[in-house]
Specification:
Length: about 525
């Protein structure tokens, strides 16, 4: 039964619960099932505990803490991830020169700035996380589909990225204590003893941070951002000095003409596709932003400017190493291994670990937490869902998944191809159909007359747009004959999702704009 929004949640204990149990529940790990300050508010719909708790509720405008610097440091960490360096250095290996790599990244960054800003504004206005945002277009029940797709991609990558970070830690520990190498040659479920120790240590660190909530993640990102920027700049200066102050601007197999331009635009498109997950759930972070200006300013310095800085580092690293020995490096970790001083090597390796943890927290941990919380809001909150997400990331034995190319290509690649249509539908519905008019309290009611009840809680028109757009996106991603189009699969999927949705949308509905403040909770809780 839906729970009404009247009364304070602490004034009405749950049935069959002892006083001591209620005290433990309320003060140790509480789950708020009703709005804390909605009593006496006329016109509010009945709020359902199957759709509402303190982590899914909208955040109050007053007290939001994410500044432009907070947004900037998200990108200061994520843009400089080892995976992104691997991608950009791969462009050099393909035959693109310095200016072409910068152009490709610039095109992608310009597009990302626009996409992330319009996505971020949605979070600022409504104050809701991504699974609740999905209820607008897909319905209060249909929202489970996009939330679980996004969360499924993230939780697998959380395990894989933690494993990859553990490899760096293993190399670091063996370099400092060579005797540990004897623990790295056995196999327990596919991982050595040292592998289990390093994976477990990083797993515990990340789980501990997440257990303390989004504001702790904000603080970690704010601290890690400058560390990463300084470290990467220092690595670029070191390798440039080692190369005698000059770099090779391209390999000996430079692309020219049409093939060059195809790779430039494909590189820009793939740069956007890398962030296909983030453009979906950026509202998870901007729901705590102080203003729209802080989002735009943080994105400006964090995307176009920071990506240009990233591109310069890539060109210097790749060109300097190629000048030295004719080889194209695959990751900054390759440069770290060449540092002759053990102390400096340790510092650089630790910085890479700080980076990987920062990227994993925001890109691969937050999304499954909200997805799981949305699945069972009566039982799960941010803390509990964070622990479950971490356990899933462990029990899937991600090192075995990573060593199986079919899993990466078909499972994760397939889920990734679905993100474009989801984005197209959600953006078209919010910006073009509703013109940002959202009835936020109605996102938390099971009343069949509610604005987002649709048909038994599912919007069939959104599903009707998602299915064909997804099918075409998957074909482009996996059919060999369409390989030249595969870098643009996300754009095709997003465009088709938006166009089909607008074509089938119900234009007879009247859209109300109702603030979520009456049922909102503090931004830090």
């Amino acid at each position: 039964m839906p729970t009404t929004s009247q009364g304070d949640p602490t004034s009405a204990p749950e049935p069959h619960t002892s006083t001591s149990e209620r005290h433990h529940h309320e003060h140790v790990d509480p789950i708020l099932h009703r709005p804390p300050s909605a009593a006496g508010q006329p016109g509010l719909p009945p709020i359902s505990e199957r759709l509402y708790n303190q982590d899914l509720a909208p955040t109050r405008v007053e007290g939001r803490r994410w500044s432009a610097y907070s947004i900037f440091t998200l990108w200061a960490n994520d843009v400089h991830s080892l995976g992104n360096y691997g991608f950009a250095l791969g462009l050099f290996a393909l035959g693109l020169g310095g200016w072409q790599i910068l152009l490709a990244l610039g095109i992608g960054a310009a597009l990302l700035f626009v996409l992330l800003t319009i996505s971020g504004y949605m979070g600022f206005k409504t104050g809701v996380p991504f699974p609740v945002m999905c209820r607008i277009a897909f319905g209060v029940r249909g929202a489970q589909l996009p939330a679980l797709i996004r969360g499924g991609v993230a939780v697998v990558w959380f395990g894989i990225q933690t494993y990859l970070a553990s490899l760096v830690l293993r190399v670091l520990l063996i370099a400092v204590v060579p005797g540990l190498d004897r623990l790295d040659h056995n196999s327990i479920l596919g991982l050595s003893t040292l592998g289990w120790l390093t994976f477990g240590a990083l797993w515990l660190v990340q789980t501990y941070i997440v257990q303390h909530g989004m504001d702790t993640i904000r603080k970690y990102e704010a601290w890690a951002g400058p560390v990463i920027l300084i470290t990467m700049a220092a690595l670029a200066v070191w390798i440039l000095t080692k190369a005698g102050g000059s770099i090779a601007w391209s390999t000996n197999h430079r692309l020219t003409g049409a093939s060059m331009w195809h790779e430039i635009f494909a590189g820009g498109a793939l740069w956007v596709s890398i962030y296909a997950t983030f453009v979906l759930n950026f509202c998870d972070f901007t729901r705590a932003s102080r203003s729209k200006r802080s989002i735009a300013l943080g994105n400006f310095w964090g995307i176009p400017i920071n990506v240009l800085f990233f591109g310069v580092i890539v060109v210097v690293m790749a060109g300097a190493q190629f000048r030295i020995n004719g080889h194209v490096i695959e990751s900054p970790a390759d440069i770290v291994k060449e540092i002759p001083d053990t102390a400096l090597l340790v510092i650089a390796s630790l910085a890479l670990l700080v980076l990987t943890v920062a990227v994993n927290l925001m890109a691969n941990f937050v999304a499954p937490i909200y997805a799981l919380t949305n699945l069972v809001p009566r039982k799960l909150n941010f803390k509990r869902a964070g622990l479950i997400s971490a356990v899933i990331g462990l029990v899937i034995l991600p090192w075995n998944l990573y060593s199986t190319p079919a899993v990466i290509v078909y499972f994760l690649g397939g889920l990734g191809a679905l993100l474009g249509p989801l984005f197209g539908i959600i953006i078209a519905d919010y910006w073009l159909l509703r013109r940002t008019r959202i009835d936020v309290p109605a996102l938390y009611t099971e009343d069949q007359s509610g604005a987002y009840a649709y048909r038994s809680g599912v919007n069939p028109r959104a599903i009707a747009a998602f299915v064909p757009a997804s099918a075409i996106s998957l074909l482009i991603a996996f059919v060999p004959a369409l390989r030249s189009l595969s870098p643009f699969a996300w754009f095709v999927g997003a465009g088709l999702g938006a166009v089909i949705f607008l074509a089938v949308a119900d234009r007879t509905r009247v859209y109300d704009d109702v603030s979520g403040e009456p049922i909102a909770v503090p931004s830090v809780h």
